[in-house]
Specification:
The structure is a single chain. The protein contains eleven helices and 21 strands. The protein is globular. The longest helix is centred in the middle third of the chain and has 18 residues, at about 250-270. Helix 5 (about 210-225) links the parallel strand 7 and strand 8. The chain folds into two domains: about 15-85 and about 425-484, Sandwich (Immunoglobulin-like), CATH 2.60.40; about 85-420, Glycosidases (TIM Barrel). It is an alpha/beta fold and about 475 residues long. Strands 3-2-21-18-17-16-4-19-20 form a nine-stranded mixed β-sheet. The protein has helices at about 10, 95-100, 105-115, 165-175, 210-225, 250-270, 285-295, 295-300, 315-325, 350-365, 405-415; strands at about 5, 40-45, 55-60, 75-85, 85-90, 125-130, 180-185, 230-235, 275-280, 305-310, 330-335, 370-375, 375-380, 395, 405, 425-430, 435-440, 445-455, 460-465, 470-475, 480-484. Helix content is about 25%, strand content about 25%.
């Protein structure tokens, strides 16, 4: 269930366990004798309890356990490593920024600490923001005058009021270890065949070059304001005709725009180091769309990775299919939210569980980062200029200043707080369908094991690591993180 802001200091005050075991990076350091007497910190968030990222106990490994056939078990193997974590976080939108600046200063600082402070909060290290307006803006807007094909009028003055100051505060709180990528929802209306930023439409061929240059203008303008841009997606949801800002590309159109215009334009603008992400839409068509671009060497040379969303179904196997077929291509989860917004359901427990189920499966199938949608919304699930209201992990009542922390905030925090940039995914294998799990080896040698229980019953289990074992239990409808 969600909690209100007067309970947040309990989260913001806790610190990580100081006596965690340190590991060397070589495989030999994970020998069976290395775990006896070492502590494991257990952090829990559970339904119908007061536990929210709460440190519940410390346990230790021993070599005298005798498991039976009926015991549930989880096996951790740090000698088998996979993808490196880029980061975990959420989108810094107009809506989030506008809501933020309607709050008292003390609430603003609480939100910054809650999200971006790695000690007192959940340590977000990844962010996304939009080029031009999106649905979670109070109005549609662009950065150029109508018909300015040379982009001489390009100006980001609109973003200087709320969004840019908000992003800068988030980065300052997170520290140097923060990654931001950007996405367009629509080109200006005059560049499109439907003469509207809304309702889909396509980029007119005569404006391909102009639009390709627009990305570089945006990146340079933001970096001039002190906001480093790590990468970009070609187009948010290129298969969706939305009532809000949207633009349609077939797979072939995205491929050709990338290889003939966007890729060369970024290189010409001195931005060849910016990572380009294709697709940026649902898992359902992820493989088909990725293959069209990645099977063309002239287009693939510009691609860092494939971005994907969770709407329209789980389709987790499609993430795995892309990684199997294109192992050198990076995978990044770029957007998720629960919707439509209904304030009466702000305590619905299933919302957080949906996040954790997705995060475990996406990471286990090769994702290197995971990005939620809006980090903050108001009491209506906005602002949103097309009434497309949804949930965020934190909501603010802009009339009273009261903050509402949904359980999704804590569920995401079980990953973002303990799985840090540079961590390597390792083997975490469960013997029961009741417990979903993933695990990571951080750069400081600490192992974080996340375990999700979606069932109505507690599940005792044995954790195995390096030939040693320990017993603990996962409460009903809970998520736990074990820090070793």
């Amino acid at each position: 269930m969600a909690i209100v802001s007067n309970l947040v200091p309990k989260l913001l005050s806790f610190t990580l366990l100081t006596s965690l075991i340190s590991f060397m990076t070589c495989t030999s350091s994970y020998g069976a004798s290395g775990y006896l007497g070492k502590n494991i910190a257990v952090y829990v968030t559970a339904k119908d309890t007061g536990q929210r990222l709460a440190k519940s106990e410390e346990i230790g490994f021993n070599d005298k356990l005798s498991p039976t056939e009926k015991d549930a078990e989880i096996y951790i193997d740090p000698s088998k490593t996979f993808q490196t974590v880029l980061g975990i976080g959420g989108a810094l939108t107009d809506a989030s920024a506008e809501t933020f600046y309607k709050l008292p200063k003390d609430k603003q600082q609480e939100i910054l600490r809650a999200y971006y402070d790695p000690q007192s909060g959940i340590g977000y290290t990844l962010g996304r923001t939009h080029i031009n307006s999106c649905d979670f803006s109070s109005e549609s807007y662009t950065y150029v005058n109508d018909g300015d094909k040379e982009l001489k009028s390009f100006n980001i003055a609109h973003d200087l009021k709320y969004r840019i100051p908000f992003i800068k505060q988030a980065i300052a709180t997170a520290g140097t270890n923060f990654t931001l990528f950007v996405s367009p929802w629509s080109p200006p209306a005059w560049m499109k065949d439907n003469n509207s930023m809304l309702h889909g439409g396509k980029l007119k061929p005569e404006y391909y070059e102009t639009w390709a240059g627009y990305y570089g203008k945006f990146i340079h303008a933001y970096e001039k304001e002190g906001i480093p841009i790590w990468g970009l997606t070609v187009q948010n949801e290129p298969m969706a005709i939305q009532s809000w800002e949207s633009c349609i590309y077939t797979a072939e159109e995205e491929r050709d725009f990338l290889k003939n215009y966007l890729g060369p334009a970024l290189q010409k603008d001195g931005l060849k180091d910016k990572r380009i992400i294709i697709w940026d839409h649902n898992r359902s068509l992820m493989y088909q769309r990725a293959s069209v671009v990645l099977d063309d060497p002239a287009a693939a040379q510009y691609v860092w990775g494939v971005g994907f969303h969770w709407y329209m179904g789980d389709d987790f196997e499609n993430v795995k299919r892309v990684k199997e077929a294109y192992p050198k291509t990076h995978l990044l989860f770029t957007e998720a939210c629960n919707y439509p917004f209904d304030f009466s359901k702000i305590n619905d427990w299933q919302g957080g569980e949906t996040y954790a189920k997705s995060m475990i499966n996406d990471f286990n199938n090769g994702a290197e980062g995971w990005t939620d949608w809006n980090v903050l919304l108001d009491e209506k699930g906005g602002p949103n200029h097309v009434q497309n209201f949804c949930y965020a992990p934190i909501h603010a009542d802009t009339k009273t200043g009261k903050l509402y922390y949904m359980n999704s905030y804590y569920y995401i925090g079980h990953f973002s707080k303990f799985i840090r940039p540079g961590a390597k995914r390792i083997i975490s294998s469960s013997t029961t369908d009741q417990l979903l799990t993933t695990a990571f080896l951080n750069t400081d040698g600490k192992i974080a094991v996340v375990i999700l229980n979606l069932s109505n019953q507690a599940q005792p289990f044995i954790l195995w690591l390096g030939g040693k074992a320990t017993r603990t239990s996962s409460p009903a409808h809970s998520i736990i993180t074990l820090v070793i």
